[in-house]
Write a structure and sequence with these properties.
The chain is of the alpha/beta class. The chain has eleven helices and 14 strands. Strands 8-9-10-7-11-12-13-14 form an eight-stranded mixed β-sheet, with helices on one face. Helix 4 (78-87) packs parallel to helix 5 and helix 5 (102-115) runs antiparallel to helix 11.
């Protein structure tokens, strides 16, 4: 029996739509990438000539053939547009942050349930090659009892973002809601809900209205502490992942190549897509039975964001639970909302 592809529309064709959504929807046979909202310049047609350009969000939502809507617009619009799409009877794939408060998220989840539709969080960094390697090491138990974990996502950008909405003090603006959802989700997917959190934020770039540094210390059972940190003034980033346990340590850089490859125009169907470059391996240091320490390189499996879209497809068509669970999204928003410590 032939499965009918999921007819899908994007609400924008900026960087997110062009790099992180359209190529994978177009490559996956379970989706029919049908349309996009482009009010003026119709850029998506240069890449996808058969695409339909809608003049407004309302026009997309009024199209009864559209099953899935990708909300990939500015952060402060996510809640309203996701609400509109769910009320129109569409499934929603929602860019991060999925909400700017726990209350908003609860409203969206309740509405999705009422409408018998799915709300999917676009947490693509679970399918990064570097994080995949970290998750494999954690699950293997090779490090023994974990004591200390550091997850970082750093950049060096002194100048304010030319996209003004990213620099205005609006709900969902600032580094915490930009990069925070990526690494908070990674920590939650590995370790679950923390017992407590200590949050620090900072404002360091000239003229900034939004935080450009944050660090969350998450405390877990058995003494495990996980630090989640990001800064926009890190000129020489160190390892993105550092894990210490009773039997050894692991270090891994932020080495996933997918964004770089997509920016260069590579198709996610290319044979070399997602493969890290030689020399980017993680390093696993383990105690031997004699007490000596041995360090070995740890190659990562290729990353591929197609896994996220396959998960969306399997949930809509076959009812298989989506891996980014509702309770994990609620925990994420609890941490994002947590007041900074004095």
């Amino acid at each position: 029996m032939t499965t009918v592809p999921i007819r899908t529309a994007l609400l924008a064709y900026g960087m997110s739509g062009k790099l992180f959504q359209a190529p994978f929807l177009a490559a996956h046979p379970g989706f029919d990438l049908h349309g996009v909202v482009e009010r003026t310049e119709q850029r998506m047609r240069h890449d996808y000539p058969a695409i339909r350009s809608y003049a407004s969000v309302a026009e997309v939502l009024a199209d009864p053939t559209i099953e899935l809507v990708v909300v990939n617009t500015p952060s402060n619009t996510h809640f309203d547009l996701a609400q509109q799409a769910l009320r129109a009877g569409k499934h929603v794939l929602l860019e991060k942050p999925v909400a700017t408060s726990v209350t908003q998220l609860q409203e969206l989840l309740a509405l999705a349930k009422k409408m018998d539709r799915h709300l999917f969080a676009y947490q693509n960094r679970r399918w990064d090659s570097d994080f995949g390697a970290v998750a494999r090491v954690v699950e293997s138990g090779q490090l023994g009892q974990l004591i200390e974990v550091h997850i970082r996502y750093d950049r060096y950008k002194v100048a304010l973002n030319p996209k003004k909405f990213k620099e205005e003090a609006l709900p969902g603006s600032g580094l915490l809601y930009d990069l925070g959802p990526h690494i908070i989700d990674q920590a939650i997917s590995l370790f679950g809900r923390p017992l407590s959190v200590h949050k620090t934020v900072g404002y360091f770039r000239p003229g900034t209205q939004v935080e450009d540094f944050f660090s969350l210390q998450l405390r877990y059972p058995a003494g495990l502490n996980v630090w989640i940190t990001s800064g926009l003034l890190v000129a020489a980033p160190g390892p993105a992942y550092v894990l210490h346990g009773t039997q050894g340590s692991y270090q891994k850089g932020r080495t996933d190549v997918q964004e770089t490859q997509l920016l260069a125009g590579m198709s996610p169907e290319a044979p070399e897509y997602g493969h890290e470059k030689p020399g980017q391996e993680g390093h696993l240091t383990l105690a031997t039975p004699t007490g000596a320490l041995e360090t070995t390189p740890d190659p990562a499996a290729p990353g591929n964001y197609r896994g996220l879209f396959e998960a969306v497809f399997q949930t809509i068509r076959n009812g298989i639970p989506y891996p980014i669970r509702e309770e994990q999204l609620l925990w994420q928003n609890e941490l994002l909302e947590q007041p900074a410590s004095a």
